[in-house]
Amino acid sequence: MEKDNILEIKNLHVTFYTEDGIVRALQGVEYEVKHNETLGVVGESGCGKSVTSLTIMRLLPKPQAKVEEGQILFRDKETGQEINLLELPEEKMRHVRGNRISMIFQEPMTALNPVYTVGDQIMEAILIHNPETTRQEARKKAIEMLKLVGIPAAEKRVDDYPHQMSGGMRQRVMIAMALSTNPDILIADEPTTALDVTIQAQILDLINRLQEQLGMSIILITHNLGVVAQNADRIAVMYLGRIVEYAPVREIFHDPKHPYTQGLLQSVPRLDRGGLKEPLPGISGNLPSPYNPPPGCKFHPRCPYVMDRCREEEPSAVEISPGHTVRCWLHVKGEKSNE
Amino acid sequence: MNDVLLEVHDLVKWFPIKRGVFGRVQGHVKAVDGVSFSLRQGETLGLVGESGSGKTTIGRLVLKLIPHTRGRIVFEGVDITSMNYSQFRPMKKDMQIIFQDPYSSLNPRMTVGEIIAEPLLVHTNMTQKEREKRVYELLEKVTLRPEHARRYPHEFSGGQRQRIGIARALALNPKFIVADEPISALDVSIQAQITNLLIDLQRDMNISFLFIAHDLSVVKHMADSVLVLYLGKPMEYGKNEDVFVHPRHPYTQALLSAVPVPDPDYKRERIILQGEIPSPIDPPKGCVFHTRCPYATDKCKTEIPQLREVATGHFVACHYA
Amino acid sequence: MNYLIKRVLQLIPTFLVATLIAFILFSLVGDPFEGLRQDPRLASQVERLRRIYGYDKDPITRYFLWIKNFLQGEWGYSIMAKRAVFQVVMERLPVSLSIGIVNTVLATLFGILLGIYSAIHLYSAADYAATALVFFGMSMPSFFFGVMALFFFVVTIPLFNVGLMTPGFHPDIANLFDKTIEYGRHLALPIFILTLLGMGGFVRYSRSAMLEVLHMDYIRTARAKGLPESVVIRKHALRNALIPIVTLLALSLPAIIGAAPITETIFSINGLGKLYIDALGANDIMVLMADLTLTISLVIIGNLLADILYAVVDPRVTLE
Predict the structure, then answer these.
(1) Which of B19, B21, B24 to mutate: most C Cβ within 10 Å?
(2) Residues C126 and C118: beta-carbon distance below 8 Å
(3) Higher pLDDT residue, C30 or B137?
(4) Which of chain C's residues have a Cβ under 8 Å away from the Cβ of B18?
(5) DSSP states along A21-44
(6) Is C43 helix (H, G, I), strand (E, B) or coil?
(7) Burial of C276 (0-12, 13-18, 19+ CB in 10 A)
(8) Which CATH number fits domain C92-313: 3.30.450.40, 1.10.101.10, 1.10.3720.10, 1.20.120.450?
(9) Among A97-106, A131-140, B44-53, C171-180, where is mean pLDDT lowest?
(10) Mean pLDDT of A298-318
């Protein structure tokens, strides 16, 4: 594990065995998260961006999902030890989950338990990971966290039930809960997708501020390219269970190499450029069914540069410049073609 | 060309709030409160706003899907507000709607062919053969294949279902379509395809769109003119350029600055609005936006700003614009 | 509080309408004193009774006469038992209650526990076994199941006892302990059958309620916090799954006075269920009305209780 990494995912393969068939949800996913940086994970539905984070948390649905291969290495900040989360006994994993690595989700409306007050739910997270803390201390800490995430009248709101709060407020509560244990990593899975634009801006601003203030690494999962452009240091672009491109944020947005990344960027109308009713180049075709993925490169049926080789053989990841890898035959040097 | 197709004057919709055992009316939600706009043939008007802005309600009102409280809706020079159902029925074929959720807006027990042919069955006296031919034409128009007519909605992806919804809306050659968040439930790469399709259709068939969206980038891309709403009230109304290049209302400015731009080096002044969107049940007095406005003064707390024309065709409801 | 008073007041018209409908339906059957008239010695009595119960007037007037008397504890005269209805019903009530309460408590308790266990261990052998048991219980008619039980556990192996569930039960046994044992031998079998047949609904209902809850986002949140699975289930899932179950519980209140005429008949238990069947045969309208009115009252109270409990267990619901 490299020194400034806190998390490394290596060759992760996850398969779902469902009634409708087998889905190879992750096929050789690899990424790393550095200390205090934000990694953006971008992709459309079924690309595996959320499955990856659930694998890190070891919260995959049982018994359908199975980790077939791979390692998730995590550096424990206190001991400096490297641990493979996939091999950790459940008992020990629980001390990582919600404590060293926390997670917030897309739906703030349903992610909080309706029958307990928000204070109870934050305190629960504090108490489970700090057994020596008293309830009074935990309550004080919960109020402090609510203040930190910008909830007005926190002393009063701590006794509110989730339904008494707006969507934006609930997402703040989720953040307060996730950060109440001072985690090393925060996984934010589409944290602003369900929110209004102005509230989205508030929440992203809050997450950035807290990252600076508290110091933590963030894995920001989203389908919205705009959200990662201004909030992430590096980006992993996923398509059908693979990371097709992985690079520092500027390279992804200014010099995308994979045709899928290029297409994705050309799919969104821009506030900063582009004329009225100009056609968007975008990507043709539909997302393939995860039950029945195409052979060869998974993107080839929609790729404008498709070659014969793409239809038969799947490219592996190639590092084309330091820290910038692409899975595409266009970027594999002829003689160096691997395996 | 470019004749006004739809005119809306001072449209108001109040929903009663009922409480208690006997459902007494305790007050009203002013979902739409004094909205006016006009839409020309072959053009798109973008309705922009966050939750509680009333944009979806306006879409329903102009199609008379729900009754209005006050105001006038004029379609092709005819006042449709006072019409009863039988008078309005023949006009319905010119006015269609596309929904946000392509999953729930198609009847799962009907084939795609039946879904698309249904408006033809209701509004025309085409023969079975003619209807079939028309369905194939429509499928082609939305880039689906003729054999898709025999399949059921669940066999299609989200983008394809939205195409089916569009084909159904096009069946009667409408002049006007309400597109209510037509792409927001779709994947990014599919959004672009549907956006392109809508633009092509508009050009080919000279359709006018009332385009309802919360995503300002899409509205900037699609709409000839834009109406920005907040808590049921118009904040700013003007041509695309007026609103996106020279926004005058603080709310419009804040909305624009909140839109994430896919460029890590894009620099702009960030206005992050504080606080929450107030409840439309109990909107703020004076200017409804004053509780979140960074420039609010005492005047804003008491006096309701009128929508004023600040430049030709550019209207702003702000005391200081 | 205001709301509660309003709700209680609303129950009155519901009660009146329900009893009125029942009353009119029974009136359509015909003159209940027809049988008595066969005996010429009773002729003058019959006329008197007819006047007392308003049979010389129209059914609506008769209803109001009846309800006025009923509310004063005058439940009328049972043609079948030739005694006051109130006496007959009160005699039978303890028998039905003892079966009804025990069976309802057992059916709901085991039903809910089994349902929740099934949901947590979805598609396990235990889950399939529970499902099989439920289908057995729900599809097995009580007259067949009851008779089979009677045959095997009373006739073939005399493990249990039947019949004789009348007032002055076994006067020969003086010892209270022995009497209780004997009581149990009489009631165990019908209670077991009613529990088995009755818990099916609760198993299905609580299983699906729990399954739904287990798929909720907040369960994922609870797990992501690092809570042990047992806490996730007990604290986060169970509490939410119980919300709909509590309602069902309150609605099953009428079952405590024995909605088991068939089982009572098979086991010759003189409870309210059997009384109802017998009264139907004898066209004993006053008994039928008394029995139905009790049930109607419990249904109405159960509904009110369901609403109140709902607000107690779910903070999103307020009584207003």
Answers:
(1) B21
(2) yes
(3) B137
(4) none
(5) EEEEEEEEEEEEEETT-EEEEE--
(6) helix
(7) buried
(8) 1.10.3720.10
(9) C171-180
(10) 95
Indicate the range of A89-98, A321-330, C155-164 predicted with least confidence: C155-164
Query: Which residues have C-beta within 8 Å of that of residue A169, sequence separation ≥ 6?
Result: A151, A157, B276
Interface of C with B (CB under 8 A): 3, 6, 10, 320
Q: How far is B49 from chain C (nearest CA, A)?
A: 28
> What are the Cα distances from residue B136, in Å, to A178, B120, B126, B133, B154?
53, 13, 14, 5, 19
Span(s) in chain C for CATH 1.10.3720.10: 92-313
Average pLDDT over residues C178-192: 82
Is B189 at the interface with chain A, CB within 8 A? Answer: yes
Residue B231 · residue B53 · CB < 8 Å: yes
Chains A, B: CB pairs < 8 Å: 146
DSSP labels for A282-295? ---S-PPPTTSPPS
What does the DSSP 8-state code read for residue B242? H
Residue A12 φ/ψ, nearest 5 degrees: -85, 125
Token reading at A338: 């691997």
Kindly list the residues from chain C whose CB atom is less than 8 angstroms away from the CB atom of residue B20.
Answer: 320
- Contact of A163 with chain B, judged by CB distance below 8 Å, is answered with no
CA distances from B265 to A122, A201, A231, B134, B215 (A): 37, 17, 11, 49, 21
- Residues of chain C positioned with their CB less than 8 A from the CB of A105: 217, 220-221, 224
Q: How far apart are CA B112 and CA B148, in angstroms?
A: 7
> C40, C46 in Cβ contact below 8 A?
no
